[in-house]
Amino acid sequence: MSTVDLYRTVRLIRRFEERAIEFVRSGEIVGGIHPYVGQEAIAAAVCAALTPADVITSTHRGHGHVLARGVDPGRLLAELMGRETGLNKGRGGSMHAADFSLGILGANAIVGAAGSIATGAAWAHRRQGRDTVAVTFFGDGAMNEGMLLEAFNLAALWRIPVIFVCENNGYATTMPVESAVAGSITGRARAFGMPAFTIDGQDPETVLKATTAAVARARSGKGPMFLECLTYRFDAHHTFEHRARLDYRSADQLASGRSRDPVEIQGARLSERERAEVDDEIEAVLDAATEFALGSPHPDPADALKYLYAVRP
Length: 313
Known about the structure:
The chain is an alpha/beta fold. It is built from twelve helices and seven strands. The strands form two sheets. The protein has a five-stranded parallel β-sheet, sandwiched between helices.
């Protein structure tokens, strides 16, 4: 992916999230979202290292991942608004976006649960003779979840081509990582026999380089790899915080965390003209997405049970 294209994805995610926050405040998005603002470099660069045949699983903070994978912003925004034209016909909402046609096996509201899904998917593809690589995203809080550790064990034991990407933004909701995780995050991964590295999650180029190497290793049959991407969540854990005003980060902490902005880091690699052109392009894309989502119908309440059960042929 070119420098411009990587910036385009980072910028798209940032502006999409900022608009989504506005729609939460206006009431168009009911229930709130978990903003991805500040962590854009990880989604953009990791997905840039994948082929169309690869697959991902995501988290409750997953808008950036699915946008980076190529979903239509209009359909994602419609999903957040609970509209019939959404990715999942308005039934998945913010935390369950999926698009199998793009290899997005789903965001997941259960902390750490998506790791086992990605591991199983990668194993299944390998059994069918494909060289598909799976990537699963999760936060530092998931490192204490047993189902994720079980996924580490099977992936390492069976040399499954899965990349574990830990987005360590320093907090599990409001709990600092140093108060929640004994030892080190990469140390836990290495204990299962897989290579594990800590990288700068705010620099898109750094993340792209590390992920490209991890994907090539997994595709060649050498098994899983673990990447701890050090990042920072600029906004709330959940937009509920905008009303509750939880006090767990000082103004100095926020300013320090925001001092390394992935949008600015990647944007500085472009000329002023290139950056302005991309910024204008993204605004036009999101204007169209907004018009599409707001103009889409809500699902018919009479169809509430539709798609709930599988229908046998």
